[in-house]
Design goal:
Shape of chain B: globular
Distance between the termini of chain B: 43 Å
Helix content of chain A: 40-55%
Bound molecules: pyridoxal-5'-phosphate
Order of helices and strands of chain B: EEEHHEHEHEHEHEHEEHEEHHEEHEEHEH
CATH topology of chain A: Sufe protein. Chain: A
Strand content of chain A: 15-25%
Oligomer: heterodimer
CATH architecture of chain A: Alpha-Beta Complex
Number of domains of chain A: 1
Structural class of chain A: alpha+beta
Helix content of chain B: 25-40%
Number of strands of chain A: 3
CATH superfamily of the largest domain in chain B: Type I PLP-dependent aspartate aminotransferase-like (Major domain)
Strand content of chain B: 15-25%
Radius of gyration of chain A: 15 Å
CATH class of chain A: Alpha Beta
Number of helices of chain A: 5
Order of helices and strands of chain A: HEEEHHHH
Shape of chain A: globular
Chain lengths: 131, 405
């Protein structure tokens, strides 16, 4: 496991996290907890014209969870809302770029759980608007 | 004196973790077993396995004798009689057993007290039982170092108190003698969770004069799945049954049955015969090494570990600052490094520690931390193990220090 912490990519995202921080004027936000270890991740997003205008994260968790969030969020700034559901487990793990043990995979995938929850909330809101 | 050659008694300690030599510092979660304990399990399953109390064939006779002897050995190790030594799977089962049997005998409206920094297993059973039985549930406060407010306990009205002997999160040795004294004056009952204490301090439950004392075999060099609950004889005689079925009865009728009123009354179903035999052999091993020797040796290593960690800048240690009041473990955080990352980096160095909340979420909340790292000792740890730990902690700081969690 030690060489996990030798990964430049991960260390870079830990030391210089992208899009980290609470967004006060978020249109939508969500919070997920890794039930295996208690790590917490919050996601905040501004939505405009069917796109994610900006998305940020904050939380209290291990380096794997936080850097994985930083990596994924960097990639999805500005995407169409309909593409949000297309982020997959495989993609997140591949993006992380390191063989992870099953328990650490849970850490890296916390951000995905957050995105899925965010997506559910967005769909619910959209339905409400239609009604 | 305990010397390094004792490591040879524990086969697992010679294994590697990746390319590194294992340094096992997760003993509060579970201790490793010496070869004699593993051998006793193998011997039972290889040569004597049979169900107990049910047969007259030779194997059944043998296993029954071995089972009963194991209860004797375990009871005597703690200065009590076999009829007062109930077998349980672990400490968790012990507190559940007491919560769902003995608490029924308290008057409605009586108060059950616990401390603020109990392991979840010494919290949730009381929480739930109190609700079901309409008892009051109260917690005794501790300060930020986890030191109990004895005056609060003295001035409170309660009928039952459950408290840990040594905290598995803070490492504090709690003043159980004083608590028992206070409780006696109030004619209140005392349950002690000794999960972290039995392998670390010499104990005589009779002399201690508590009403209940529980422990897990796997935390005192024994196997998983077996532990003990001491219950004072007079209490056991009037306590309702827990699990019911075969093995715990006196007589059975279709409408009504009667039950054994001693430790065997809590042996419903086929017991963990091999486990109890192996636990007895673990206690024999501890006796052979000497529990006083173990306590002395461990405390010397603990003091060294506490002081060494304290010297690493950025390390914050939890629990009492009086090292003489500590035993077995140190929980801490390294500034800017999440405990899981610390444990992960240490794992890469072959060092096994625990990270997370150690089943003590309320006390983590009280200290305003989300998790902590915990290094915990056993009789086979030496200062050299601590040195490896400290190097690992420093390395973690180099890799991740400054990362803002
Ligand atoms: C103080 C304390 N109480 C209870 C327990 C529960 O022990 P077990 O999981 O063996 O039931 C533990 C184990 O971590 C403990 O440290």
């Amino acid at each position: 496991m030690s060489d996990l912490y030798a990964r430049e990519n991960m260390l870079d995202h830990i030391k210089n996290p992208r899009n980290r921080g609470k967004m006060v004027n978020a249109d939508i936000k969500t919070k997920v907890v890794n039930r295996h270890c208690g790590d917490i991740l919050s996601l905040y997003a501004n939505i405009e014209a069917g796109k994610i205008k900006k998305i940020t994260f904050d939380g209290d968790g291990c380096a794997v969870a936080m850097s994985s969030a930083s990596m994924i969020l960097e990639d999805i700034q500005g995407i169409d809302l309909k593409n949000l559901s297309k982020v997959t487990k495989k993609q997140v793990l591949k993006n992380f770029g390191q063989d992870l043990t099953p328990s650490r995979q849970n850490c890296a995938l916390l951000v995905l759980e957050g995105l899925q929850q965010l997506n559910k909330k967005l769909n619910k809101n959209a339905k409400k608007d239609e009604e | 004196m305990i010397t390094k050659s004792i490591k040879k008694d524990f086969p697992i300690l010679s294994r590697k973790v990746g390319k590194k030599q294992l340094v096992y510092l997760d003993n509060s979660a579970t201790t490793q077993s010496p070869k004699v304990v593993i051998d006793s399990l193998t011997d039972f399953y290889t040569n004597h396995r049979a169900n107990v109390h049910r047969g007259i064939h030779m194997l059944s006779e043998e296993s029954t004798v071995m089972y009963e002897q194991s209860r004797k050995t375990i009871a005597h190790f703690f200065g009590v009689t076999p009829s007062e030594m109930v077998f349980v799977r672990n400490t968790t089962e012990a507190s559940n057993l007491v919560a769902f049997t003995f608490l029924q005998t308290l008057k409605k409206g009586s108060t059950v007290m616990i401390s603020e920094f109990e392991h979840h297993s010494n919290l949730i059973p009381w929480q739930i039982a109190c609700k079901q039985l309409k008892l009051n549930f109260k917690t005794a406060p501790v300060n930020s170092e986890g030191e109990l407010d004895l005056n609060f306990i003295k001035n409170s009205d309660f009928s039952f108190i459950a408290i840990n002997h040594i905290s598995n999160f803070l490492g504090n040795i709690n003043p159980v003698h004083k608590i028992i004294e206070i409780a006696k004056e109030k004619k209140a009952y005392v349950y002690i969770d000794g999960a972290q204490a039995v392998a670390r301090v010499p104990l005589n439950f009779k002399k201690l004069d508590c009403d209940f004392y529980s422990f897990s075999g796997h935390k005192i060099y024994g196997p998983f799945g077996i532990g003990g609950l001491y219950v004072k004889k007079q209490i056991l005689e009037s306590m309702p049954p827990f699990m019911t079925g075969g093995g715990m009865i006196v007589d059975v009728g279709i409408k009504k049955s009667s039950f054994l009123k001693d430790s065997e009354g809590y042996d419903a179903g086929t017991p963990n015969v091999g486990g109890s035999i192996a636990l007895a052999s673990a206690l024999d091993y501890v006796t052979q090494v000497g529990i006083k020797e173990i306590a002395k040796h461990e405390h010397a290593v603990l003091t060294y570990m506490y002081e060494s960690l304290l010297k690493v800048s950025g390390v914050e240690i939890y629990g009492t600052k009086k090292v003489s009041n500590r035993a077995g473990l140190v929980s801490f955080n390294l500034k800017g490094v999440h405990s899981h990352d610390l444990a992960s980096i240490l794992d890469g160095e072959g060092i096994a520690i625990r990270s997370g909340t150690h089943c003590v979420i309320p006390m983590h909340k009280k200290l305003n931390i989300s998790s902590s790292a915990r290094a915990s000792l056993a009789l086979y740890n030496f200062k050299e193990d601590v040195d490896v730990l400290i190097e690992g902690v420093k390395k973690s700081k180099k890799i991740l220090g400054g990362y803002n969690v």
